[in-house]
Amino acid sequence: MVPPELLQGLECLKSYSPEQVRKLAQISDLMDCPSETYVYRTNDVADALYLVLSGRVAVEMELPRHRKVVVDFAERGEFFGWSALVPPHLLTASCLCMEQSTLLRIPREPLLKLLEEDVLLKASLMEMISTLVARRLKDTRLQMSYLLGWD
User: Fold this and answer.
1) Residue span of the structural domain in which 86 resides
2) What is the largest CA-CA distance in the chain?
3) Core vs surface per residue 117-130: b (16+ CB within 10 A) or e
């Protein structure tokens, strides 16, 4: 369990009630990740949703011939690992800590159970995930356009 006070002041949780934040904190744990550490890699099973409490995480897409491109960054107050909430629960990118980072790790199964119990929390979280996925898709398209020389 994470002390709920650690989550106070995060813009992404501003619309949640203190009770909802407490419930999220209760099922979560903290991860301290050194710089240049992968949180997960493409095609891993998505067993958790992550929230950056401090640091910076690069979202990398793998390209042919063992190349990678950074399509996004997650910083304080931003979620990543949304595949934990979307079947088939396989990660579509790799995430690399660019600097010492502290992450909130919200395990998938307890989170899904919590979302079933609290439909308002589920609606709010899924809206945030939809916005994140749309932004990531836009950023990926821009990266692909640049890589293909279509700028």
Assistant:
1) 30-147
2) 49
3) ebeebbebbeebbe
Which tokens is 4 given? 């709920």
21 within a domain of the structure (yes/no): no
Burial-class residue 19 by CB neighbours within 10 Å (0-12, 13-18, 19+): exposed
Q: Which residues are 31's β-sheet partners?
A: 103
Answer yes or no: is 78 within a domain. yes
> For residue 91, which of 101, 81, 100 has the smallest C-alpha distance?
81
pLDDT in tens, 55-99: 999 999 888 888 888 989 999 999 999 999 999 999 999 999 999
Residue type, 41: R
Q: What is the CATH number of the domain that holds 74?
A: 2.60.120.10
Q: How many Å is the Cα radius of gyration of the chain? A: 16
Residue 142 forms part of a structural domain: yes
